[in-house]
Amino acid sequence: MPEKLRLMVTLASWCALRFGEIVELRCGDIDLGQEVIRIRRAAVRTKGAYSVTTPKSDAGVRDVSIPPHIIGAIEAHLAKYVGTGRDSLIFGADSGGHLQPSTLYRHWYRARAAAVREDLQFHDLRHSGAVLAAATGASLAELIGRLGHSTPQAAMRYQHVAAGRDREIAALLSKLAANE
Questions:
Q1: Is the pLDDT of residue 172 over 90?
Q2: Is-above-0.70 flag for pTM?
Q3: Active site members
Q4: What DSSP string describes 18-39?
Q5: Smallest Cα–Cα separation from 123: which of 95, 157, 98?
């Protein structure tokens, strides 16, 4: 991905954000001191134009903690590509306004071809982020909150068995049995 768009991939993957949430992110939504992204709005394209609305559900309005290992990438992106005003878009179009999906996808298709993953959709990054969060041992309630879901059924779509996780669970059970 071009450097200017790499952080979109990072946020979709590690914070499990939706495309509409990412393209509507503004400087005031990111609090690096608290290491949190405040999701309060989403941009939705209808009839070729964006409208800013609330996230998909009331549960979509949430604070998402930022994994500490990506703070540096966020700081670098903000310093290089984003204005200083609280309302400055994090991923604005070169001509102003919201980034067009066609701009992202033009680069996304090249990147996934280079990675030999032409089957990968951008939304799959959110899915990966949710699976990674689940692999940390997050409870269903914690996943619902992080992903902005309103029902357990929606969060359960991301509950996959991570490769090797059962072995880790077995080792932790042995630690419990040994009172470690």
A1: no
A2: yes
A3: 18, 123, 126, 149, 158
A4: -HHHHHT-BGGGEETTTTEEEE
A5: 157
